[in-house]
Hints:
44% of the residues lie in helices and 19% in strands. By secondary structure, it is of the alpha/beta class.
Amino acid sequence: xxxGVIGVGNAGSKIVDKMVEFESLTNRKLCRHVMVINTARTxxxxxxxxxxxxxxxxxxxxxxxxxxGVGGDVDVGAEVAKNDMDEIRRAFDDVDIHxxxxxxxxxxxxxxxxxxxxxxxxxxxxxxxDEPVYGLGVLPGKYEGGRPALNAARSxxxxxxxxxxxxxxxxxxxxxxxxTVGEGYEGMNRELATRIVTLLGAGEYDEPTIAENAMxxxxxxxxxxxxxxxxxxxxxxxVDNSDGFMKRFREDHEIEDSSNSAAKINGLVRRxxxxxxxxxxxxxSADRALIVLSGPPSELSRKGLESxxxxxxxxxxxxxxxxxxxxxxxxxALSAVVxxxxxxxxxxxxxxQEQAVAAQExxxxxxxxxxxxxxxxxxxxxxxxxxxx
Length: 389
Ligand SMILES: Nc1nc2c(ncn2[C@@H]2O[C@H](COP(=O)(O)OP(=O)(O)OP(=O)(O)O)[C@@H](O)[C@H]2O)c(=O)[nH]1
């Protein structure tokens, strides 16, 4: 698939940066247009792989943002994006839409810029283009407290309602227990970029491929076309892709090798579904699923892919399962990515909603106490307002 990729806010921009890094390391050609949008000038200097002229600062003249971010305030994030919409639109004008099959907007839902400006950007893209617009959103960890959960619960609805599909990544599930907030982001972003680029980059090659089961971008678009929330599973195993003795040996043992390959693929796909998903969920609650098998052509097996597809159909009980190969001549690993589209049994999303309700109640209580304190300060014992002077 050919993609336009837009990162909004700090985490969104870092994830886009990692996607571009991964695709260039693996010779893929997924991200045809990249752009990052932020309210914080310093965060815009962080990406290593985004050209300078594709970094858009918004809100530098806004009274609350002033180029320093929006401090977790979703409403300010949304307001800034609306105010600077002309500038954002001008940046979109450079995107040659005939060159892309879809647009992906990446953001974290726990901060203020990604969760506030992200949905505004998505709405504008939906108005401007007919191509599908997908969201890739990071859910804050429980350990971060009520405010990020409240932001996420509010903006999740906007992301899901306004995108053709929302792929979720749960910080809670991916953080190691001994890590504090902020630690481990680099590794988490790399894991997410690997999954998303291997999935969406399937089928884009410099040279035409003759692979009979090659994945087609229309299959990916079809699987994502559910208006729901998705999760991705991934498993990988290293392979010998040298020209040396081992490869010749394996070629000489073709029959044995092909049944081995089929078993390996089947095992890999099962491992992907049972692995740590980007969003923990009950796989059987998915409406549609898609398998991409990526690796050297000698490792791909039609039989293996077909039996893995049947396994997902039966065991995971998903109605529609598509599968395809992504042959990569020089790859030194065989990877399976499984997209579970429109999953509904997602405990973390339910927990975020509960955490958000509790946070909202706490904020309301604190406001009531503050109002009482202010009233006490400015009124005399008879309840009359004390003049300031
Ligand atoms: N997975 C992941 N999560 C991140 C990363 N950086 C921040 N977060 C999470 O993102 C949330 C904060 O969002 P940010 O993207 O930093 O903030 P922002 O959208 O730029 O908004 P403001 O800082 O309020 O202007 C918190 O839930 C963090 O845990 C990252 O690199 N990877």
